[in-house]
Amino acid sequence: MQQRFDESVQHLVDAGAEIVEVSCPSFTYALATYYLILPSEASSNLAKFDAMRYGLRVPPEDIDDPSAEQVMAATRDAGFGDEVKRRIILGTYALSSGYYDAYYGSAQKVRRLISDEFTAAFEKADVLVSPTAPTTAFKLGDKLDDPMAMYLNDIATIPANLAGIPGMSLPSGLAPEDGLPVGFQILAPAMQDQRLYAVGAALEARLLHAWGAPLLASAPDLTAVAKGTSR
Amino acid sequence: MTQATTDATLSYDEALAAYDPVMGLEVHVELGTKTKMFCGCATTFGAEPNSQVCPVCLGLPGALPVVNEKGVEGAIRIGLALNCEIAQWCRFARKNYFYPDMPKNFQTSQYDEPISYDGWLDVELEDGTVYRVEIERAHMEEDTGKSLHVGGSTGRIHGATHSLVDYNRAGIPLIEIVTKPMVGAGERAPEIARAYVATLRDLIKALGVSDVKMEQGSMRCDVNLSLMPKGSNTFGTRSETKNVNSLRSVERAVRYEIQRHAAVLQSGGAVTQETRHWHEDTGITTAGREKSDAEDYRYFPEPDLVPIAPSRESVEALRATLPEPPAARRKRLQSAWGYSDLEMRDVVNAGLVELIDETVTAGASPAGARKWWSGEIARRANGEGTDVPSYAAQLGVTPAHVVELESLVTAGRLNDSMARQVWEGVLGGEGAPTAVADARGLELVQDTGALDAAVEKVIAANADVAQKVRDGKVQAAGALIGQVMKEMKGQADAAAVRELILAKLT
Ligand SMILES: [Zn+2]
């Protein structure tokens, strides 16, 4: 993975880019911040699926004359999947009185710090680059029992979402470990999306030239990978 | 569970002897914008249910709100008129709760960043005392839909078999004006509450941002009340009486809650923190939702809307559009009309300022305008349980009618008692004054021959009285005037009759 990333950076240098390193210490908290803010908003956004106007209408079992609240509860239980319920519960908790300041309130403050660090970083650089994810893709359903591991995979993309800036990911080659594509992320300041296309196009042209063909041509046989017979 | 019991109350005097009321009022005002607060839907009152809705105000998944600039301007103008600070930067917040009249299951409101805060409003009571009401905040929010609960006996959700919801009202801009706790009002608390709501109504009406019709729900009032034992500075547990929607009810609800709280406390009980329902017909409140487990609305800044940051220039530009404050206007009009303090106060308390202003502007004398609008029509309006402006509007009686009536008197066609009869006809729906006078055959007799004959006849028949007048007892002429008027069936000008009698006898 690191190898693919370094190669892409070198391509950009060859295309005339100047490389500077920036430090954004608050990004350490980006994941925790995101998983407080997103579930909070989701818990509110999804409240409308309450059996009254939106969503299913599932009467609760074993209750003869259910109240509106009981119908809502049964409906929401039946209609939402585990991950959605997890986020609704997390978000409801983070917004609750007595917990708001510690969770949602703190998360918004860190979000501000992250945004400020991006602003400072863009003083030094026109775009920021990083790997898109810490690992290549894991198998479908592989981490369902370990949501934290699943969330951690978003660690590199989440700061941009928190700060509200544009980002782009493009394939930078296959990882030698598992033959799966490695993403290369480019980030630009708000309202400067055109920088993403300029840098992305320059990198893509050089990668294609190096590969001699689109990446798909060298991709592994995914049916074989899925069956676990080959890597 | 049915709510059939009536709570005990203490007499008002006993309650006030032992406790000091602490009062807070929350008034909701619907802004009269053409469109809703966060979408382009129309806001016409009384439209076909659910005909003024769109994806945004129905909360369709994926629909996004946009703030109505006129709504923000209206909010700022109200804040300025209430002598509030206007926030440099503020946001909307989501108030989350599950209720079918909220399509999104949250209400877009403001929480800890209201657009206006820390203001005051001077309220003049009937006896001329001025009480300053401190304003905590005036914030922006959206109205909810209207629920109709069907099948229950009370029309409330409890016991209903199903509910109908009209979302036409959902998303209409609303300003919630919250007072600071009013302490020290004492026995005048009910009166102050009423005067505050009336003053606020007049102020907002003058701003032109809302029609503030309590009977149509464009102005709604919640009354918070608690008692503290005399000498104590610690607020008691408060009740929140919802939807007290007339000036008279505001006064009665405060009075009733003082008496009810006092009875609870006097008997050694504890007041329950709860919302109360106001019953206009019986003048009492009954228990609503208990609030002891403090409802958690999970407020947080609305992520779908940009913050509101009105520039100081734009705020000053709005301040420049504020009309003359009603209190200042009243002072100016009083002096222009030449009314005494007492006369002006009566006119204000009867809600006649606008009507008299229009009538004077239309050409009537200030004295005449006051006389006609505060006489018979006021007595009738009172009997109908309404006020003169509403009653006049209902009858179709206008300032132009008063001008016409007065001109009939000044032109010498009617005397005062005839004018009163004509006015009764106008109020009775018989038409405009001239038409009523024609139809009823009311006209001063201009025929001096007939009048002369009547005077001669009365003098002859009352020789002793006539002699007194001849002897210089001019006031005795009154008895003769009365006789002549009777003789003329009232259709004579009393002043002319008097002149004629005196001419003949002195
Ligand atoms: Zn709409």
Automatic annotation (TrEMBL), chain B:
Keyword set includes Ligase: yes
Organism: Nostocoides australiense Ben110
Source taxonomy: Bacteria, Bacillati, Actinomycetota, Actinomycetes, Micrococcales
Protein task: Allows the formation of correctly charged Asn-tRNA(Asn) or Gln-tRNA(Gln) through the transamidation of misacylated Asp-tRNA(Asn) or Glu-tRNA(Gln) in organisms which lack either or both of asparaginyl-tRNA or glutaminyl-tRNA synthetases. The reaction takes place in the presence of glutamine and ATP through an activated phospho-Asp-tRNA(Asn) or phospho-Glu-tRNA(Gln).
Similarity annotation: Belongs to the GatB/GatE family. GatB subfamily.
Source organism superkingdom: Bacteria
Listed SMART domains: GatB_Yqey
Catalytic reactions of this protein: L-glutamyl-tRNA(Gln) + L-glutamine + ATP + H2O = L-glutaminyl-tRNA(Gln) + L-glutamate + ADP + phosphate + H(+); L-aspartyl-tRNA(Asn) + L-glutamine + ATP + H2O = L-asparaginyl-tRNA(Asn) + L-glutamate + ADP + phosphate + 2 H(+)
Protein's UniProt keywords contain Protein biosynthesis: yes
The protein's name: Aspartyl/glutamyl-tRNA(Asn/Gln) amidotransferase subunit B
Domain Asn/Gln amidotransferase, residue spans: 354-505
Keywords annotated in UniProt: ATP-binding, Ligase, Nucleotide-binding, Protein biosynthesis, Transferase
Biological process terms in GO annotation: glutaminyl-tRNAGln biosynthesis via transamidation; translation
